[in-house]
Design brief:
Blueprint (H helix, E strand, L loop, with lengths): L10 E4 L5 E5 L13 E3 L5 E9 L2 E4 L9 E5 L2 E2 L5 H14 L3 H6 L8 E6 L2 E5 L3 H6 L7 E7 L2 E6 L43 E3 L2 E9 L2 E8 L3 E4 L2 E4 L2 E5 L2 E7 L4 E7 L8 H4 L3 H9 L2 E5 L8 E3 L4 E8 L8 E6 L2 E3 L1 E6 L7 E8 L3 E6 L2 E5 L4
Length: about 375
Amino acid sequence: MAIRPDWTTGTLTLVSGSVNFTTTGSALQTAAVQAGDEIITASGHVLIIEKITGQNSGTLYAKCPAGAAGAGQALRIRYQPDGSRYQGAVRDLVSLLSGGQLQSLAGLDLVVGDYLRAVGAGVIGKVAGKNLDALAALAGVNNGIPMFTGDNAMSLLDANNLPLGKIASAYNWIINGNFNINQRGATSKAQPVGVYGYDRWKGHANGLEQIIEALPAGEYTLTWSGGGTGTFGATTKASPIKATVGAGNRSIIVPANATKVSLVIGDSTGADPWVNVERPRSIEDTLCWRYFFRVNGWIGGHPVKYGDAGGIRNAGQVILPNMRVAPTARILSQPNYLNCSDLSFGSAQRSDYAYAIVNVTALGSYRAWGGSFDFDAEFA
């Protein structure tokens, strides 16, 4: 199904540390905003909606970070496909249930005072309650995290020294960062300068380039695997690259052999954030379709129509996934024809569907169906 444009009506108020949010004049229920849709703040944070509780209110899955809080902000809600809102969460749950933890837990002989900890991959063990004595003996300090240093012994770890504590966002602004999607069927990631191959990536003199659409102003960290040097925010160096940029469409360049490319808000130079930002394939597909969409077999209805011979007539439409702009259409293989020929796409196209026209060759019914088409809305 087509994804609707971002909902930007009204203003947004977020409170640091709270899961509740409110809007003004946004009519969220009327706009059919649902759980799983994303609030994209001006600061670049991506907040997942848990529930819509009214026309101008709702709750988030996680508490609002301080950097995203504020009243009267510009509202931007990005709709997600019905099937993909929960698909990733369900897949993760199934993976956890089959990972051995439940079997390990069932085998424990617990007594009063015991608590649990992971002792290996898919293995849960118990720790005797007497270890709580070591915890009680600690003098808590700000940002201190208790950790075991031995049997019945604990100390405090400074949270500021945790690598994952430096990951400021779990949203990757790079689309197709691990090059899993290749609608064009490119034989190599490397392409001539300016030519698109794998989805969202085009050839560059220094490797591969992706144009990020409408990146909010702020500090970001670009990270990739595979070595070499890249460029972001006028900085060229090895991964990671931390830079502050203004709002707008922004270019990132990575080596042609790069994998696991991510761009997250804030300073994430302490650790590669890929494990936290990788998206389910279904969502990644949908994000790519905004810029390029290949149709193998006409999906627009191809109805039987009637007309006079020799006339240019409407042959139906191809439904598109709400692309960035009205796309450029290209015919890869001709459709099948009944009493018509020369299918093309007229000049008056839209971002969510494309009109097809044919030359009718005989009086009476005519029809076009099948064929393969590209619809390209990428940046030049």
